[in-house]
Amino acid sequence: RTPTGVPLRVDGLVKRFGGVTAVDGASFEVEQGSLTGLIGPNGAGKSTTFNCITGVHEPTAGNIYFKNEDITGLKPYQIARKGLVRTFQIARELEEMTVLENLMLAPKGQLGESAIRAVTPGLRGEVVTQEEEIRERAWETLDFFEIDHLATEHAGNLSGGQRKLLEMARALMTDPELVLLDEPLAGVNPTLEEKLLDRIHQLREDGYTFLLVEHDMDIIMNNCEHVIVMHQGSVLAEGTGDEIRNNEQVIEAYLGE
Ligand code: ADP
Ligand code: MG
């Protein structure tokens, strides 16, 4: 995978909903290959920031750059196609489909070339239909997340934790560069939590970049080498887990919630 420096830069982001200012001038960067954590007390503006980055909300002001390109105001599918993806909850109509079918729905034509090469090393130059490529990639991804035994299960029958694994597997199907996760461990039992974190660390070593949005400070402190703290819509502090853990303002912000 080719390094691209600072894949994500958020610059002076503002988002208002009527009279409510959810994000109030947030600026931060996510470095290539990092596992960066975005934390903050409830209502800090984390999810709104996440939604602005991924195109779900249009920012009121400020800019978002992905690989030095201004992506502010692009539609979610346009942003995803560029290699910046997020996880989505399995929609109701997809619950009737199997786990394998859910993975194979990853938008066709969005499968990165490196992904195709990774799954079909012996087939380069030969004729492989996109359907076959996607199926191969889906099985490889199921295997990676250790949910291959659930391939023919309806997504609606999965446990909460298994759904989280499927949601992450779906996001990975397109071989993205930057993956945004909003509270990926909420409601996940400790065994699956460990597995999910382990997969994230492994993917990161393979060159993926992650921005993990979490309310739970400990998860972020224990797993992210760089932590950004939001409070009242802007960035209150940044640093390593240890720096943040001992930051008076951060402690105060969390105590005040
Ligand atoms: P966090 O994810 O850090 O808990 P949010 O981004 O969800 O924070 O919310 C930040 C603030 O913006 C909160 O005060 C919340 O009530 C408000 N807010 C978020 N989304 C909306 C919306 N769609 N309409 C109105 N207010 C919103
Ligand atoms: Mg939130």
Automatic annotation (TrEMBL):
It holds the Pfam family BCA_ABC_TP_C. Coiled coil: none annotated. Belongs to the ABC transporter superfamily. CDD domains: ABC_Mj1267_LivG_branched. The keyword Flavoprotein does not apply. InterPro entries: AAA+_ATPase, ABC_AA/LPS_Transport, ABC_transporter-like_ATP-bd, ABC_transporter-like_CS, BCA_ABC_TP_C, P-loop_NTPase. This is Probable branched-chain amino acid transport ATP-binding protein LivG. Residues 8-257 form the ABC transporter domain. One of its GO terms (biological process) is amino acid transport. GO terms for cellular component: plasma membrane. Keywords: Amino-acid transport, ATP-binding, Nucleotide-binding, Transport. Probable component of a branched-chain amino-acid transport system. One of its GO terms (molecular function) is ATP binding. It comes from the Archaea.
